[in-house]
Recover the amino acids of this structure.
């Protein structure tokens, strides 16, 4: 569910339960109640709620952020976003846009290890069936990579997954090396990126972008517990 909208594209993403491993406790206290037949206790149940939220919208004359039912939440009007990208980061991040690199690559563009596991540790999602590592990699190696142009800079080998059910919309992972260290270790800013791909059909209709946002991103840095959407104005 998308909640707590504000003017600058800040969105708080909240989940009640994010994985099948989170179960309701059995509603029975040992020895507190005497029962003739304890084999029929069925108060334990499992609810699966995905870790990711899908955000989609249009960019013709305005940038719309919508929820899963495609209701307009807020807009920016009068901007040209052709051939641009949409980004999402923790609101507490301080992004240096010229210092972004693909997750899984260091500052000299060499392959690194454990980046995806480190994101899961930071998110508390290591055991999730839809963890970052399981979603984006096979045994730690990205399932798919693409190149993105970010503020006129080409960034190669960006790990991506389909945002939903089509390759017309993908979501990639970037990190900000201006925060220190030559490779990602989950202390740097983390960003999601998707290309604006106008008038394409996604899972929820026809629109211009669709991005897959992990709910724990909202609390990745600082105490604000919100995410901020960005785009390049061409």
């Amino acid at each position: 569910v998308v909640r707590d909208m504000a003017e600058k594209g800040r969105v708080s993403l909240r989940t009640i339960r994010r994985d099948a491993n989170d179960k309701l406790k059995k509603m029975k206290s040992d020895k507190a109640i005497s029962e003739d037949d304890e084999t029929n206790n069925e108060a334990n149940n499992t609810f699966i709620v995905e870790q990711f939220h899908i955000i989609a919208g249009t960019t013709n004359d305005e940038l719309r952020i919508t929820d899963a039912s495609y209701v307009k939440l807020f807009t920016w009007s009068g901007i040209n976003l052709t051939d641009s990208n949409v980004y999402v980061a923790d609101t507490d991040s301080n992004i240096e846009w010229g210092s972004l690199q693909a997750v899984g690559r260091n500052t000299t563009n060499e392959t690194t290890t454990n980046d995806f596991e480190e994101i899961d540790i930071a998110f508390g999602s290591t055991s999730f069936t839809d963890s970052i590592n399981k979603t984006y990699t096979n045994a730690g190696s990205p399932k798919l990579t693409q190149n993105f142009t970010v503020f006129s800079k080409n960034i190669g080998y960006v790990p991506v997954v389909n945002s939903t059910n089509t390759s017309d919309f993908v979501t990639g992972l970037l990190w900000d090396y201006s925060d220190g260290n030559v490779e990602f270790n989950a202390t740097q800013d983390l960003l999601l990126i998707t290309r604006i791909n106008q008038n394409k059909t996604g899972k929820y209709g026809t629109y211009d972008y669709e991005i897959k946002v992990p709910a724990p991103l909202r609390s990745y840095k600082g105490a604000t517990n919100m995410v901020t959407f960005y785009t390049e104005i061409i």
